[in-house]
Amino acid sequence: MKITAIETHVCHARMRNWVFVKVLTDQDGLWGWGEATLEWHTRAVVGAIEDISPLLIGEDPTRVEHLWQIMYRQQFWHPPGFVRGTAISGIDLALWDILGKIHNVPCHKLWGGPVRDFVRLYSHLGGGKMEDFYQTDPSDAKRFGELAASSVADGYTAFKSMAVPETMSLEGLKPIKYAEACVRAMREAVGDGIDIMVDCHARPSPAMGLQFAKALEPYGLYFFEEPCWSESIDGIADVQRAVTTPIATGERLVSLHQFRDLLEKRACSVIQPDIIHIGGLSEARRIAALAEAHRVSMAPHNPQGPVSTAASIEFGFATPSYIICESVHQDVPWRDDIVKDGFTVEKQGRIVRPGKLPGLGIEINEAEVKKHPFQQETILRTFYKDGSAGDW
């Protein structure tokens, strides 16, 4: 059995272009699907996949680890790097999908079988709308409470919000009070039985992130995500040591080595590798082993397309340290037209039961994808009140 071609299929989905990767073989009807979505870098990722493909054409697709090593090692410039890492990820997911199809089992059975009966999902307040993620007006507190109640009514037992506003490297009490008001409104709306997460999007400085973390500590957050710049591991560690709230980070790390450094510093309680940026499921499994050794939980970053979600769920069924899966289900109204999957999602509790379809348990409708061709993503820029460039 040989790989005959590697294709990319770009699908514009409002906030981002989904990049689906199809690895074809010389056996009729046998191919695998992956995903390599990277916002604002769509053309670069497609080009990177084209650059990597000659290394794999003619190779045996069942040698997944061997092919991963080839992709990583044999172009001189080793990752990390988001473009190259995302390209490798998309191909790696498709190879695992092929292997599962060959053995006619879901991928989680290739990795030792299920370690849990279901995977819990959490939602984003606003359901994927940019204008709902980034709120700045003090009157937003009431709206956050309403969105929280709506998420619970929709069956979720956990949700995440962007209640921390953009801040300069040092500001006064106004943004702190704003974030506290929004989180208080959410907690009052849903009670103590619902898990609330707050994502800072790595925008605050370490000094501001620490102030936000302390202000929100009384509200019993499930986790507080990326309280400061992701390149400041020491700053993240300082925040974690200063509060009892579990700190989560890792969506902007792209290699096993970076997660090793994060875990050795005991900088967080939850790691959030993105399966379609870090090198795919092969690298995710190695990172999971590190997390298990440090007794740190995993909650992968997953705001992208349906193949990323399928891979994240399959990974969750076979990974002991995995606690919850990020879920986007209302970003575009035609999402379900693009993909056929075999998972069972129970609305009450928003939990996913294992599917019976082999591989990643999904199939992409290429005809539907073609209805949504590439479009330039909206350029998102932010500036502080003095005109200086801010972190988006």
Distance between the termini: 45 Å
Mean pLDDT: 93
The CATH topology name of the largest domain reads TIM Barrel
| Secondary structure: helix percent | 25-40%
Look at the structure and give the CATH class of the largest domain.
Alpha Beta
Radius of gyration computed on alpha carbons? 20 Å
- The CATH superfamily of the largest domain turns out to be Enolase-like C-terminal domain
3D shape: globular
For the record, the CATH architecture of the largest domain stands as: Alpha-Beta Barrel
Beta-strand fraction estimate = 15-25%
Structure explained in plain terms:
With about 400 residues, the chain is α/β, with parallel strands linked by helices. The chain folds into 2 domains: about 5-105, 2-Layer Sandwich (Enolase-like, domain 1); about 110-370, Enolase-like C-terminal domain (TIM Barrel, Alpha-Beta Barrel). The protein is about 40% helix and about 15% strand. The chain is built from 14 helices and 15 strands. The protein has helices spanning about 40-50, 65-75, 80-105, 105-110, 130-135, 140-155, 175-190, 205-215, 235-240, 255-265, 280-295, 305-315, 335-340, 365-370; strands spanning about 5-15, 15-25, 30-35, 120-125, 160, 195-200, 225, 245-250, 270, 295-300, 325, 340, 345, 350-355, 360-365. The strands form 3 sheets. Strands 4, 5, 6, 7, 8, 9, 10, 11, 13 and 14 form a 10-stranded mixed beta sheet that branches. Strands 1-2-3 form a 3-stranded antiparallel beta sheet. Helix 1 crosses helix 3 and helix 8 (about 205-215) runs parallel beside helix 9.
